[in-house]
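Co-fold these.
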Amino acid sequence: AKMTQNSVMTQDVIKEENLRDDLRYYFMSPCEKYRARRHIPWKLGVQILKIIMITTQLILFGLNNQLVVSYKEENMMALKNLFLKDYSGVDEDDYSVAVYTQQAVHDSLFYVLDQYSQFGRLSVGPISYAEDEDGKLLPLTLCKEYYKRGSVEPSNEAYDIDAQLETVCVTHDPNTTNQQKTQNSSFFDLDFYRLVDIKITFQLRGINLQTVRSRELPDCYAFFVTITFDNQCHSGKVKIFLDIDAQSCACRNWKISGTAQKNTHYLLVFDVFVIVVCLTSAVLCTRSIVLAVRLLQRFSRFLHENYNRKVCEDDQSEFLNGWYLLVIISDLLAIIGSILKMEIQAKSLTSYDVCSIFLGTSTLMVWVGVIRYLGYFQKYNVLILTMKAAFPKVLRFCCCAGMIYLGYTFCGWIVLGPYHEKFEGLSRVAECLFSLLNGDDMFTTFAQLKDKNILVWLFSRAYLYSFISLFIYMVLSLFIALITDAYETIKVL
Amino acid sequence: AKMTQNSVMTQDVIKEENLRDDLRYYFMSPCEKYRARRHIPWKLGVQILKIIMITTQLILFGLNNQLVVSYKEENMMALKNLFLKDYSGVDEDDYSVAVYTQQAVHDSLFYVLDQYSQFGRLSVGPISYAEDEDGKLLPLTLCKEYYKRGSVEPSNEAYDIDAQLETVCVTHDPNTTNQQKTQNSSFFDLDFYRLVDIKITFQLRGINLQTVRSRELPDCYAFFVTITFDNQCHSGKVKIFLDIDAQSCACRNWKISGTAQKNTHYLLVFDVFVIVVCLTSAVLCTRSIVLAVRLLQRFSRFLHENYNRKVCEDDQSEFLNGWYLLVIISDLLAIIGSILKMEIQAKSLTSYDVCSIFLGTSTLMVWVGVIRYLGYFQKYNVLILTMKAAFPKVLRFCCCAGMIYLGYTFCGWIVLGPYHEKFEGLSRVAECLFSLLNGDDMFTTFAQLKDKNILVWLFSRAYLYSFISLFIYMVLSLFIALITDAYETIKVL
Amino acid sequence: AKMTQNSVMTQDVIKEENLRDDLRYYFMSPCEKYRARRHIPWKLGVQILKIIMITTQLILFGLNNQLVVSYKEENMMALKNLFLKDYSGVDEDDYSVAVYTQQAVHDSLFYVLDQYSQFGRLSVGPISYAEDEDGKLLPLTLCKEYYKRGSVEPSNEAYDIDAQLETVCVTHDPNTTNQQKTQNSSFFDLDFYRLVDIKITFQLRGINLQTVRSRELPDCYAFFVTITFDNQCHSGKVKIFLDIDAQSCACRNWKISGTAQKNTHYLLVFDVFVIVVCLTSAVLCTRSIVLAVRLLQRFSRFLHENYNRKVCEDDQSEFLNGWYLLVIISDLLAIIGSILKMEIQAKSLTSYDVCSIFLGTSTLMVWVGVIRYLGYFQKYNVLILTMKAAFPKVLRFCCCAGMIYLGYTFCGWIVLGPYHEKFEGLSRVAECLFSLLNGDDMFTTFAQLKDKNILVWLFSRAYLYSFISLFIYMVLSLFIALITDAYETIKVL
Amino acid sequence: AKMTQNSVMTQDVIKEENLRDDLRYYFMSPCEKYRARRHIPWKLGVQILKIIMITTQLILFGLNNQLVVSYKEENMMALKNLFLKDYSGVDEDDYSVAVYTQQAVHDSLFYVLDQYSQFGRLSVGPISYAEDEDGKLLPLTLCKEYYKRGSVEPSNEAYDIDAQLETVCVTHDPNTTNQQKTQNSSFFDLDFYRLVDIKITFQLRGINLQTVRSRELPDCYAFFVTITFDNQCHSGKVKIFLDIDAQSCACRNWKISGTAQKNTHYLLVFDVFVIVVCLTSAVLCTRSIVLAVRLLQRFSRFLHENYNRKVCEDDQSEFLNGWYLLVIISDLLAIIGSILKMEIQAKSLTSYDVCSIFLGTSTLMVWVGVIRYLGYFQKYNVLILTMKAAFPKVLRFCCCAGMIYLGYTFCGWIVLGPYHEKFEGLSRVAECLFSLLNGDDMFTTFAQLKDKNILVWLFSRAYLYSFISLFIYMVLSLFIALITDAYETIKVL
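Predicted complex below.
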C-alpha cells in the first residue's frame, strides 16, 4: 500500500512536473521553444509567409482594380461632357448641372437627344449604341413623371392636385431622332407645375481596350446611362443628374493577334496557394487554442485535486490568447476575400468593393498581428501594454465624453444645420466636430456662419467656442494624463 | 425626571438614527435606494424616457425643418439666377454681383425688368406674380435714392452737395414693362454722382409642393424680393444684392386627391406628451431640492442643538445638487421649445431659429445630464471629477491668458485689419487667433500678408510668430500641466 | 560716550525699523497699501482709466481707418476692372493679367487708351480726369523702355545687344486719343526682342463722398495710376500690373448743406486727454522706479554698514520691477501714436500704418500689464510665474532647436524652392515649416511635390517626414515636458 | 632589481599620469583646452568659417537657380498658352487639357499646326524656330501610333485586334503648313478605335536675355517640345500633354555692349576656397578620430596590463565621437556639391537638382553640428540629451506603431483608393494618414467620401474614426509620455 501510495505520489510528482514543464513551454516565445525542445517554429514561418503573400495579393488586386476604376471613371467623365449641356467639368454638390428656366430645360433635353443621335461621330472611344440580340439598335427611352391632375395658382394661394403620379414614355431611335422630335412635340410640352421628373435612359456598349497592353483580354462593358431632370422640389431649380451603371462581361467574339496573352492561370494558382496558407494558419491556431484549453483544464483539475483551489480569472485569461483569435479572424477574411477575387477574375462577380473590404481588413489584421511577435522581444511591447492598461479607463472616459459629444451633435444639427453645410446631417455634424477637436478648418467653420441672423450668430459662437475649449483643452489634456498615467504604471512593472 | 430625560435621550437617539438613515439614503444611487428600501427609481425612469422623447422630437423637427430650409434656399438660388445678370452661381463676399460701368448698371437694371415681365414663361417652379385681394397683379416698385442736390467736380477738387436724401419711385406692371421703360426714360437717367442706391422690390407667391410626397399639406409662400444696387460708397463699384424674405402661410383654397394625408394630430399628441414628461421631471427635481433643503435644515438644527456647531460650507454645497438645477433648466427649455414647435406646426409662428435653439440647448443639457447617472458607477466620473478639480485653476489661468489674448486681438485688428480679411472685425480677429492657436490655416494667414508694405510685413511676422509661440508652446502646454495635475489629485482620492 | 553710542544705536534701530517698514510697504499690493497707510491707489486708478481710454481711442481710429481702406480698395478694384482687358476679378500671383501673344499685348494696350478716353462715360463713381492748375486736363503718359540696340536670332544662337536702356514717351490727351493712335503708329511698332517694359501713367481725381453720411467732411483723393506691361524676363509672358498710389487731401472748394457736420473738436480733446493720462502714468512709474532705486541704495548701504554684506543679485532684481518698464514703454508708444493720429485727422499726415502700429502695440502692452494687477490676488499668477520659471530653459532649448530649424530652412529652400511655391523664399520656408510643425496643410504640401523628378520626390519625402516627426514628436513633446516641469516647480512654492 | 622595478613603477606612474592627462584633455571643451594648454581652437574657428561660407555659397547658388527656374517655368506657361486650345491656365490633374469629341481632337491638332506656322508673329519672347547647321529650319514632326489592324464593334461585343503598334509620321515645314495639311489629309483621317496616341514634336530656340541686367552672359536654350494626344485608355477621353525639355548651352555668337560684365572668376575663387575649408575641416576631424582611436588603444592596453580588465562598451562609445562623423560627411557633401556647382557655372553640367541636394544636405548638417558646440555650455544640451535618452524607446515604439500604420495604409489603399484621390497610391495613403494624425484636412477627407455606396461609406467612417482615435489619442499621447519620461531621467543627472 505504501508502495502504491508511493508510486501514486511519484506519479503525482511526475504529473506535476509534466504539467509545470508544459505550462512553462506554453508561455515560451518561438525562439525559446526552439532552444528548449528544438521545436522548429512552423507557426511563425507560416505567419511570415502569410504576411508576404497576403500583401502581394492585395497589391496585385489593387493595381488591377485601379485600371478598371479609372476606365469607368473616365467614361463617366466623357459621357457627362458629351451629354450635359454647359457641363463645367466638376459636379456641383451632388448633381451635375442645375437649370433655372423653362427654355434651359428644353435646351438641355434636346441637347441630349441630338448628341445621342450623332453619338457615333462624336465619341473618341470604342463605345457605341447597344444592339439587341437580333442586331437591332436599342432605342433611347424618355419618360416624364407628373402629377395626374393639377392646377396650381400661386397668385391666389390656390391649388388642386391629384397626388398620384403618372408616367409617359416615348422611345427614340438614334437614326431618326429629328423626325421623332417633331412627331412627339406634344410630349415636350412640359407642364412644369405638374412635372416631377424626366428620365432619359439608354444603353451603350464599350470595350476596355487598354488591357491589351498589359497582355490581358479586353472586357466588354454595358453602360446603362440614366439622365434625370429632377423637379421634385418644385423650387424653381431643376437638377440634372447623370448616372452610369457599368457592367463588365466577357466579350462574345474576339480575336487578338500580334501579342502573347498573359497566362492568368498563374494568378489563380497564387490565389489558391494563399487560401491554403491561410487555412493552415487557421488550423494551427485553432489547434493551439484547443491545446491551451486542455492545458487549462489539466491545470485547473490539478489545482482542484491537489490544493482544492480554483484558477483565478486573471490566470484563465492568460490562457485564452486574444492574438490567436485575431489570426483566425484575419485568416477567414483572407480566405473569403481570395475566393471573391477568383470569382471576379473569372468574370462571374463584379463586387470589387466587398472583395477589397475583405482583403483590406485581413491585411490590416495580419500586420497588426506582427506586434505580437515583436512583443516576444522585451521592451518592444510598450505600445500594447500601455494600451491594455489604459484601455478600460479610456473606454469609461470616452463614455462620459461621448455623452457631451452626442449632446453637442444633436444641438449643432438642429440649430446650425440650416445655415452651414457642415452641419447638414447628423453624421456630418459628428465628423465636423471630430475634425474640429483635432484642430481642423476652424476659421472657415466660424466664417461661414457670419452673415446670418444675429441670434444664430451668437449661438454659433457660444457653441463653437465652448465645444472647442471643452474638448481640446479639457478632454484631450485628460487623454494625455490618462495615457501618461498608464505608461508610468507599466514602466514600474 | 430621569425617565423623562431618558425618554428624551431615547427620542434624541431615535431622531439621530432617523437623520443618519435619511442622510445615508439621500446620498445613495438609484440602485442602492432600490436595494435599501425597494424604492423603485421613478425619477431615473422619467429621465430615460425624457432623453428618448426629446431626442426623437428634435430629430422629427430637424427633418421637417430641413425640407423648409432647402425649399427656401433653392428658391433663393433660382431667383438669383433669373434676375441677376452675369450671376456666377456663388456670391462674392457679401453681395451677389458687382458692376463697374454705367452701361453695366443700366443693363443689369433692364435685365431685372425684362426677366420680371416674362417671369411666367421663365420659371420652372410653381411660383408667380402676387395678386392683391381683388385679383389685380401687384406691380414691381423701382425706387432710386439720391442726394437732393449735388455737383461734384473731382477734377478741380470741388463739390457742392445737399446731403439730404430724396427718393423717387416708379411702379411697373409686368404686362406693360416695355412701354413703361420708354415712358419713364427720365427715371433711368441716373446721375451717378448723386445716386446712393436703387431698390427694386416685388412680391412673388409660391407653393411648396414637395411636401405632397411626404403626405403633408403644401404651404403657400410669399416671397418679398428686394434687389439693391448699392452705390453708397461712391467708389466706382456698384454692388448688387438680392434679398428674399420668405413668409409661409396656409393656402387659401386647396384640394388634394389621390393620396391620404398624414394625420398631424399624432405629432401634436407626441409634443404634448413631451411637455408632460418634462413637467413631471421638473416637478420631481424641484421636490428633491426642497427635500434636500429640509434635510439640510434638520441636519444643521441637529448639529446646532447637540454639538453647537454649524454645517461647514463644503457640506452645505454637497446638499445643493447642481444636477437638479441642470435638469430643471433643461426641462423648462424643452417645454418652451415644444410649445413653440406646436405653434409653428399650427402655422401661427415661423420662428424656426428660436425654437431650434430652445430644443437644441435642452437636448444638449439632457445628454450632459446622463453623465450624472454614469457617475453612480464608480470610476466613471473621472471626467467630471477632474473638471471640477481643475475648474477654478483653469478659470484663473484663462483670466490671465485672456488679457494677453485681448491685447493681441485689439492690436491685430488695428494694424492688420486693412490688409487681411481675417482681421477685418474684432470678432473675426478673435476667431482667427483662436483658430490659429488650435493649429488652423497658419500658412495661408502668413501668405496673404506677403506683398504689403515692409513695415506691416515685419510687424505681421513678429505678431504671428510671437502669438503662436506664446500660446501654442506656453499656454497650451500649461493647460496640459494643469489638467494632469488635477487628474493626479483626484486619482489619489 | 555710552549715551552717544546708545543714541546712535537707538538711531540705528529707528533707521532699521524705518527701512523695514519702507521695504514692507514697497512690496505691498495696492489693497494692502490702502489698508496699511490709507494710501489711495492713484496709480491703479490711472492705469484703469488708461486702459479704457486707449482701447476706446483704438476702436475709434480703427473704425475710421476701415472706411478709408475700403474706399481705396474698391477704387483699386474698379480701376482694374475698367482698364485691364480680360481681368478675371482676382490677381494672379502678384500681377493682374498675363498675355502671351503680340496681338494680345497690342489689344490690352489699346484697350487702356480707349477706356481712358471714354472714362467719363464709363465710371460710376465721382472720379474723373485730373486737371492742372490752369484747368487743363493732365494727359496720359505712355513710355516704352527698350535695349538701345539689339538683334537677337535664337535660331542660330546669336545675339548682339547694347544693354543700355532707352526710354521713349508719348502723351495722350483723353479727348483726342484716336487721332493720336494713328499719329504715333510708329510708337506702337513694338520690337519685342528689345522691349523691356511699357508704362502707362495717368492721374485721376476722386472724392470720398461716403463720409457725408457719417457727418464728416468728404476728402479729395488723387489717384496716380501706373499700368506696367512687364517683359523684363523675356520669357514669352508679358505680365500686366496696375498700381495705384492714392493720396488724400482736403478739398479746395466745398459746400455741404442739408446735414449738420460732426464736431471733430471733441475727438481732438479726447486725444489730448489720452496723452495727458499717459504722461501722468509714465511720470508716476518713473517716480516709482526712482523711489525703488533709492530704497535699494538705502538697503544696500544699511547691509554694508551693519552686516558688511552686499545685496545679492536676486534681491536687486526684486527691486527693479519690470512691469514699470513695460508701462512706461507702452505710455510712450501711446503718446507718439496719439500725436500721429491727431496729425492724420488734421490731414497733414497719411501714414495710417505707422500710427496703427504705435497704437496697437501700446494697447497690447496695456492689456498685458493687467496681469500684473491680477498677480496681486494669489493663485492668479500661475501663468506669469510658470513662464518666468520656464523662460531660461525654453530659450536655451529654442536655441538648439533653432539651429536644426535653420538648417532645414536653408536646405528646403535650395532643394524644393524651384518645385513648390511654399519654398520659394527663405522667409516663406521658415513660415511654411513653422506652420507644418503646428499641424497645418500637411497633405497639400506633400501633394504639390508629386509629379517632379524622382530624386527631388524622394528627397522631399525624407525631408518632410523627418522634419515633421522630429519637431512634432520630439520638440513639441519636450516643450510640454519643460512647461510641466516648470509648473511643478512653482506649484511647490 | 628593486631600482629597476622602482623605475618601472615610476615609469608606470608617469605613463599613467600622462594617460590621465591626455584623457582629461581629450574630453575638454575648446574653452577649457585653451585655458589648460593655451591650445588655440583652430578646429572651432574652421567650423565657424565653414558655416558662414557654406551658407553664403548656398544662398548665392539659390538666387542664381531661381532665375533659371523662373525663366523655364514662364516659357513652359507661355508655350502651353500658345499651343493648347482652350487651355485654362492651370493643368488638370497631370494633363493640361482633356477633349472628348472627335471634332475637338481635330481642332486641337490643327490649332497646334496653325500656331506653329505663325509662331514668329505670335510669341512676345526672344524665341524662334530651330535651325540645323546649314541654316535650314527644323520641321515639326507629327506621329500617330495605332494598332496595326483592328475592327471593334462594341454593339455586338466583338473585336478583332492586332495588338502590334504601328507608327506613321509626317513632317511639317512651318512655312508651308497649310498646303501640307491638305496634302496629308489621309494622315488626319484618324481611326479612333485603333489610335493609341499622336505625338507632335518640334524644337524651339530661346535666349535668356534677363541675365543681361544682372550683368551675366545670356544663355541660349533649346526647347524640345512634345505635345501628346493620349488615347491609350480608350475611355472616350483624350488627354493632351505638353512637355518641354529645356537644355541650356553657351550661345555661339554674341556681342554685348553698353554694360560691364560681372567677373565670374571671383565666384570660382570663392567656390575653391569653400572646398579648401571643407577639406581642412575633414582632415582635422579625421585626425581627431585617429587620435581618439589611439588614445582608446592606449587606455585599453593600460587597463589590460595594470588591471587586466577590458574597456566596457559604454566607455568605448564615449571615445568614438559621432559628431566628427557628421562633420566629415557634411564636408564631403559640400565638396561634391561645390564641384558640381563649378561645373554648372562652366555650362558643362545642368543637373541643378543633384547639386542643390548635395549643398542643401551639407548645410543642414553643418547647422545641426552647431548644437555640439552649444552643448559645451552646460544646460544647453537638453534637447540632444533627451533625444539620445528617448531614442531607443521611441524607435522600438515606432516599430510597433509602424506595423499598425502599414496595415492601415494597405487597407486604406485597397478599399478607399477607387473613391478618394488621397488614397490613390500607396505613398499618397501614407502621406494622407501621416497628415491626418497631425491634424490636417480631416473634414474634407471625410466629406469627399460621402456619396459613395453605403458599404464603403460605413467602412470609411470606421476606418477614419478608428485610425484617428488610435493614433492621435493613444500613440501621440504615448509619445509625450515617452519624451517626458526621458526628460525626467536626464534632469536627475
